[in-house]
Every structure is written in C-alpha cells, then in structure tokens.
Amino acid sequence: MQEIGHWINGKLVAGTSGRYADVFNPATGEVQARVALASKAELDAATADAAAAQVKWGATNPQRRARVMMAMVGLLNRDMDKLAEALSREHGKTIPDAKGDIQRGLEVIEFCIGAPHLLKGEFTDSAGPGIDMYSMRQPIGVAAGITPFNFPAMIPMWKMGPALACGNAFILKPSERAPTVPLMLAALMKEAGLPDGVMQVINGDKESVDAILDNETISGVGFVGSTPIAQYIYARGTANGKRVQCFGGAKNHMIIMPDADLDQAADALVGAGYGAAGERCMAISVAVPVGKATADALIERLIPRIEKLKVGPYTAGNDVDYGPVVTGAAKANILKLIESGVAQGATLAVDGRGFKLQGYEDGFFVGPHLFDNVTTDMDIYRKEIFGPVLSVVRSDSYEAALKMAMDHEYGNGTAIYTRDGDTARDFAARVNVGMIGINVPIPVPLAYHTFGGWKKSSFGDLNQHGPDAFRFYTRTKTITSRWPSGIKEGGEFNFKQME
Q1: Which long-range contacts does 484-493 make (Cβ < 8 Å, 24+ apart)?
Q2: 111 and 202 in one domain?
Q3: Domain match, 218 and 319 both
Q4: What are the catalytic residues?
Q5: What are the residue ranges of helices labelled H in 322-411?
Q6: 20 to 30 A from 499, CA-CA: which of 22, 87, 135, 373?
Q7: Per-residue pLDDT reduced to its tens digit, 390-445
Q8: How high is the pLDDT of residue 128?
Q9: What is the pLDDT of residues 87-99, one digit of tens each?
Q10: Do 232 and 346 reside in the same domain of the chain?
Q11: What's the domain count of the chain?
Q12: Largest CA distance in the chain
C-alpha cells in the first residue's frame, strides 16, 4: 500500500503522527493509498522552517521571484499529461477536465509573472516643505492555503502563486482525498527555482486546520470548501488576528428568457450542470425558465441530451462526459437528496438512480438526474447537492426569476440566456451575486480579474487571484520622509499643518 507523506524543506517526508486517511480510486471504490495526517507539532515545525526561509525569499527582488513563476509555467506544460493522469486517478474526473483544472491554475501562475508591476508602490514628492511620502507593498510573512478535493491543481495554484510571488512563505494543506497533485506541484516549484522551505505541503484533517488557525506565525489564511467550514475558519482565524479569505458553497441559477436560443441554453446547462459530476462550486444546478412555453421547450431539449451522457472512468477515453464522485459518502449524500426531491413532490424527469456500470459496480458513480417542477422550499433547491443533478424551477416572469436568485442564501455565480441587451444589462446590474454570465454558463473570470462570490458564498474583503490576491498577500507600509534643507525651527509639539 502506497503511503503519502508531506513536502517539507524541499523533499518528500513520511508522516510521524501515526494517523492516516484512505485515498480511494473513485472508479473502483478501492483504497489505492493512505495519506499521513499531520499533528500540530508537525505543522508548527514546518511553519517555523518556512518562516526562517521566508526572510531571504522576501528580500529577493520581485523580478527574480517572477522568473520562478515563469519557469513553473514551462514545467506545468511539460508535465501536463502526468499531472492530469494523477489528478484523474484520485479525483475521478475525465482527462480533458483534469487538464482544464491544471490549465486554469497555470493561468494564475502566468499572471504572477507580472509581480514586479503589481507590487509597485506609490510616491508623492513635496507633500510638504521638504517632505516626500511613499508607500510600498511588503509580504505578510507566512501564508497558508486550505484547499478542496474538487480542484486539486487549480485552487492550490490560485493560492500559492500570488502568495509566493509576493515574497511570502506558503503552507499548503490540500484535501486528504486528493493529495498527490499538490505534492507534485511543490516538487515542480523546487525545480523552477523556489528555495527549500519556502513552500511546505502538510497533509492532514481538522487537527492540521486548527493548528494553522492557531499558529501565531501564520499571518494569512485562504480557504475554499463548504460554507459551514468557511464560516468556522473565518471566525477562528480572524479571532486569532489573521487575515482570512474563505469561499464557501453555491447554488448557481441560470435564467432562460423566452427569447433565448434554447438549443444553446440546453447545451450550456448540460455542460455546466453535469461536468465533473457536478462537483464544482460554479456548476449550474438550478435552471429557471421564464414562462410555461419556455420551460416545456427547454425540458423537451434537456431530456434527450441528459439521457445520452456517457458516464465512466477516465480510462475509458476522452469521450466520457463525467466520471464518479469522489467518495462513497459523497455518493450517499447525493442519493439522499435525490430521494428527498422525489418525496417532496418534484418531478424526476430523468431518473439515474438505477445507474450501474459493468465492471465498476463498487465505484462511486452517480447517474444523471433532472428534476422538473422544483419549488424553492425543497431541499434539492435550498442545499448544495454537489452532484450530477439539475433542478428546473419554473418562473412566470423575469422579475420572479431575478428575485429567486437574489433571495437564495448563496451568491457565487449566476447566468442569464437572452437575446435582449436591456434584460441582460438589468440582470447584471441588479442581481446580488459575485460572478455573472451573459450567455456564458460558468462565468469563472480569467486570471487577471478576481474570483469571488457574495452572501454566504464568501467571507472576507478580498477575492481570489487577479489584483485582489496581491493585495491580500501583502501589507502596505507608508513612509513620510524629510531631509534637512536648511530649515531650522527647533522642536514642535503639535501636528504641523501642511503649507
């Protein structure tokens, strides 16, 4: 049985806590490895080493740090196939989807090559008699990232790229369900020129998370996961004086107007709802057609598309639409919510409950499901299912559809399909959601914009990647300087007014 440890001071090391978690092959249900779960002592020791290494790294000029990011981009492209295969083996997503996971992380590393520009300060000369003022951005010291299973490459890179480019040391605590790719990323960072100790990867569970939140050396923490855990990490981290950004759950609505291209909308819903088995915080899980005719025509188009979806392991080829969910517990939770939808009166238009895949009967596969006539009081509407389940909630009007998206407790992403520019502009201006798609089903911004939701989808003042990341991982220091220029007035005991 393979044992997976940690990445400490530039090398793989075994865990010493004596505690382990199973790492499954989601396609077969078999345990393929076990990963060490770090103790508080292991986390604290790794953090102390990172803090020592950060001093020299933080003093390295931004251009040299950017060159490490540039080299990392080349290595990621070189090892794309190897990384994708490892990611698919532990997560279950298809190879094309795994490559997309890596690519969207790589794009953030590319953005970080611009660190010298993004870290520039400001300067005002002659702010007063002989007085100049300037500001500089300096690293916060040691930052930590607590990242989820569903994007084992992308989200670690969203966190570590900006943190390292800003001159910080970085502690990564990835999901124990998919630990291999984060360790591979750390090894590639070393090959790219990152000094030993500047990036540490600590595998673990809640004990490691709490150790991060309580460690006095760690100044900033970024998290992506469920909303209850996001709230917990934000509360405990900020109570300990840390800078914290947390991104939680989602229930993303797509509004389909009567003038929309319904074939385009149906294709978009299938891709956005069922890709990666629905295990995306930006998945569209609620379709809101406006008007009965729109809803009936949409359902007519959705059913055959969904029934044709090919579900299977990543080894079955690139024409597989989606693979298994990550664990048996995740599968059980999805099926429980599906049963609640049936019990609460929704119409199960596509029923995937009997799905079985020959030769993979013990795998964590969930067939595709489509609910119609869903109402806003049902569990399948209120809760994040995180599986291949799409709910159709019919709406009589645009205003009612807009209100539905605005009233939901989550506000991560939303989309509208329409040919009318006025409706699209009104929707984008009024909806209280962080990321908006107009005829775009998964509105994830590119790396040079920022990613973040509203309401219970996000906790903290700054978003992920883009310029916000460089603000989050740095502190601003402002200097007021005065050099003698023949002005000899003696001491003053009050604030001098600027002339």
Answers
A1: 484/130, 485/129, 485/130, 487/129, 487/130
A2: yes
A3: no
A4: 281
A5: 328-343, 379-382, 398-407
A6: 135
A7: 999 999 999 999 999 999 999 999 999 999 999 999 999 999 999 999 999 988 99
A8: 85
A9: 999 999 999 999 9
A10: no
A11: 2
A12: 90
